[in-house]
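This part of the workshop introduces the protein records we will be handling. A record pairs a protein's sequence with a compact description of its fold. Backbone structure tokens are a discrete shorthand for how the chain folds in space. The question running through the whole workshop is how a given chain folds. The record below serves as our worked example for the rest of this section.
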Amino acid sequence: MKVEIWSDIVCPFCYIGKRKFEKALQSFDAKDKVEVIWRSFQLDPGMKPVTGQTVHEYLGKRKGVTAAEGKQMNDSMAAMAKEVGLEYNFDKSIITNTLVAHRLLHFAKHKGVQNEMKERLFKAYYTEGKDTGDIETLVKLGEEAGLNAVEIREILKSDIYKEEVMQDQYKAQQVGVGGVPFFVFNDKYAVSGAQPTNVFAQVLDKVWQEEKPQVEVISEGGYCTPQGVCN
């Protein structure tokens, strides 16, 4: 089973959605048959960092409200994150363009550690207040996820994987992604948003049942079981 997840590192619902999906996946009997692919989606692709701007000011400007109201929204989001075991420290968050981080995620996918890289980036941004737009910071985070520092630095100082990020965002338009997180199961079923864990569990079961070969018994005659019982 293939599950593609469109998300952005600076989307607070995306980290929450990741946790809820992971909880459903952990209880899924065929979890070892599920391939998870993280797809790039930039909420603000033209974003240019403003020195000294807080995440509350940034959100307020995006929503057309004051920084104080932006902080209230973020406080509510932090409380929601806490319910699934996540710690959001918005006062420490550093607003940045996420293109470079998305390119790093594509490199991590190539190396087979994309999920580990995604988790590390989320924690760095939301909990630790690290600058996820800074190349040297990303090099260190990538090393922690199991990547080679020299390779990371070489890739991020070039335009490698930029095209892959653009392709993901183009595909998002084709499948109707209006917001993130957005989960697509086997190119057939979609779940939009950080839905409750039971919703993800239901979709996983439904898709898995459709994947399994279905054998219809037309009629029954005499038969013997492996235990030596014949009927």
About this structure: The domain at 2-49+96-211 is CATH 3.40.30.10 (Glutaredoxin).
